[in-house]
Amino acid sequence: MSGVVSTIAQRVQFGDCDPARIVYYPNYFRWCDVNTHTLFEKAGLSARELADRFGVHTPIVDAHLEFRTPAKWGDDIEVRSEVSRWGSRSLTVSHRISHAGSGDVIAEGHTVHVCVRPDPETGKIGACEVPQELRDAFEVGEAGN
Amino acid sequence: MSGVVSTIAQRVQFGDCDPARIVYYPNYFRWCDVNTHTLFEKAGLSARELADRFGVHTPIVDAHLEFRTPAKWGDDIEVRSEVSRWGSRSLTVSHRISHAGSGDVIAEGHTVHVCVRPDPETGKIGACEVPQELRDAFEVGEAGN
Amino acid sequence: MSGVVSTIAQRVQFGDCDPARIVYYPNYFRWCDVNTHTLFEKAGLSARELADRFGVHTPIVDAHLEFRTPAKWGDDIEVRSEVSRWGSRSLTVSHRISHAGSGDVIAEGHTVHVCVRPDPETGKIGACEVPQELRDAFEVGEAGN
Amino acid sequence: MSGVVSTIAQRVQFGDCDPARIVYYPNYFRWCDVNTHTLFEKAGLSARELADRFGVHTPIVDAHLEFRTPAKWGDDIEVRSEVSRWGSRSLTVSHRISHAGSGDVIAEGHTVHVCVRPDPETGKIGACEVPQELRDAFEVGEAGN
Fold it and tell me: Which of B78, B99, B134, C20 is deepest in the core (most CB within 10 A)?
């Protein structure tokens, strides 16, 4: 597992919550996405650079979260994300969302991202190898290793 | 599996999409949630009634979607949801999002909901049995059957 | 004022509402945006076509809503939008959001959109004339008329 | 004008942007709302406390933003908010969103909030005086002064 880890801290906002006064759950996936981007930036190769320099996007093919305890309006929470698996054309990012104070887990899960790129000739979007530059950024060496 | 099925049709909006010009994926979970509510309404007992009449909310403890093909700005899509499993204190709703024309699957997955209710004495929120009225609405008979 | 009007009807969803159990107000701007796109489609030249065929986007330079009465979870509402003013490089879309049953106004206001396009040489985004094709679609004749 | 000012800094995220690769504008209203809450917290009486202790909510009756320059995916921005006017039953919060580096203004505007509270007898929500505790928190003295 790569040593690069990103942890973002935030306060649950009024607008993040639903009539039950807890976080409206799709927001957790939004925050996992935000922290995935932050993780790439921290590794030194942002998704934006990846798109601009290599034409490579990393859309999600699988997203899964299990929810342990709710987070309420005003709670201070942390989102911790890291790459837990590298494939030849995909990577898995593990996410853990917890209460900042107690460390109690709010949600745990992962997102699987595939690398895609428009075909230079047809322009059609298709899967591609994980750019070596991205692996290098996370210091995981060659594919398969 | 209950016979009640809800299918909602919609056009992917500009604001649903990201710089990659495809649906920003947390929106799929939002739409699954919208259709889960529509499903309950169709069964005849809305989540809102459930909250107002019984004090019961159905927060999500597990949310999982696999993404097959992207949906782009302007695409017409359908979200099809139904209860695929009843537990004593939980229910699983299966979701399939597809292109309206071709029927090509965009995403498939499920959400697991637990029934919770504030304790009449302490007011503390805790798990509770699935209200019989909800089972009846979906015509699945007694718990465990 | 152009005769083209778009009205969309929808039910206020659980996830649209905040802990006060009323619509979280930024959603109203999202719905105005959705209906602005629907309005353009209804006129026969969608914002997407406008972007794809002419490279013209219509970002918002002014957004204003006044809120009369709240809308609650489960309410059926309507969003009515139409172009209320054409400028040489901009257009104003008026929006009225109301309760479907009573017609009671929930919110009223407008968004002002400018036409922008990347400079063919520098690629720099800059303001441009409202494409005649867009005016024609709304049947408002020549600029200034 | 009260001396209490809240400024929040953030990076524009992928998911905040639309296919035009700029911030999807309803997000600006969301951020103004977040910073309004942060402003209240900074003054020492959060909207949440206001709701929990006094049963008072501060829904928005008017929201207006003018947009000067777009913010793009990856930009670092600041949202600066302060109370610019106190009424007997309302307050106006002014917002300025700018680029963190250059200070270039992205958007400027305001939100007007009324104080509402459920009637102790009927439970019906209605306008009420701005709680003195809120004025005190912002150190603006008596109403009308």
Answer: B134
**Helix residue ranges, H only, D1-145:** 26-43, 47-54, 132-137
ipTM summary value: 0.92
> Residue C90: beta bridge partners?
C114
Give the span between the Cα atoms of A128 and A118, in whole angstroms: 9
- The average pLDDT across C41-54 equals 92
Q: Are C97 and C28 in contact (CB under 8 A)?
A: yes
| Type of residue at A97 | I
Q: How many whole angstroms separate alpha carbon A121 and alpha carbon B136?
A: 57
Whether the predicted pLDDT of C108 surpasses 80 = yes
- pLDDT category at C3 given cuts 50, 70, 90 is confident
What is the CB neighbour count within 10 angstroms for residue C31?
Answer: 23
Q: Convert the pLDDT of each residue in A10-66 to its tens digit.
A: 999 999 999 888 999 999 999 999 999 999 999 999 998 998 899 999 999 999 999
Is B26 an interface residue toward D (CB < 8 Å)? yes
Fill in the amino acid letter for D129.
E
pLDDT in tens, B78-104: 999 999 999 999 999 999 999 999 999
Q: Cβ of C73 under 8 Å from any chain A Cβ?
A: yes
Pick the closest to residue B55 from B118, B122, B112 (CA basis): B118
Q: State the Cα–Cα distance between residues C113 and C58, nearest whole angstrom.
A: 5
- Check if the beta carbon of residue D46 is closer than 8 Å to that of residue D37: yes
Q: What is the DSSP string of B63-85?
A: EEEEE-S--BTT-EEEEEEEEEE
| Contact B62/A at CB under 8 A | yes
pLDDT tens string A74-120: 999 999 999 999 999 999 999 999 999 999 999 999 999 999 999 88
Q: Do A19 and C24 touch (CB under 8 A)?
A: no
Please check whether residue A102 is in contact with residue A76, taking contact to mean a CB–CB distance below 8 angstroms: no
Q: Burial code of C96-118, b = ≥16 C-beta within 10 A, e = fewer?
A: bbbbeeeeeebbbbbbbbbbbbe
Q: What is the pTM of this model?
A: 0.93
Angle made by CA atoms C51, C54, C60, in degrees to the nearest 5: 50
CB-based contact, C21 to chain B, within 8 Å:
no
Residue C13 to residue B74, Cβ atoms within 8 A: no
Q: How far is CA C142 from CA B115, C112, C115, C130, in A?
A: 61, 19, 16, 10
End-to-end CA distance of chain D: 11
pLDDT digits (tens, 9 = 90+) for B121-141: 898 889 999 999 999 999 865
The pLDDT value given to residue D139 = 86
Number of A/D CB contacts below 8 angstroms equals 28
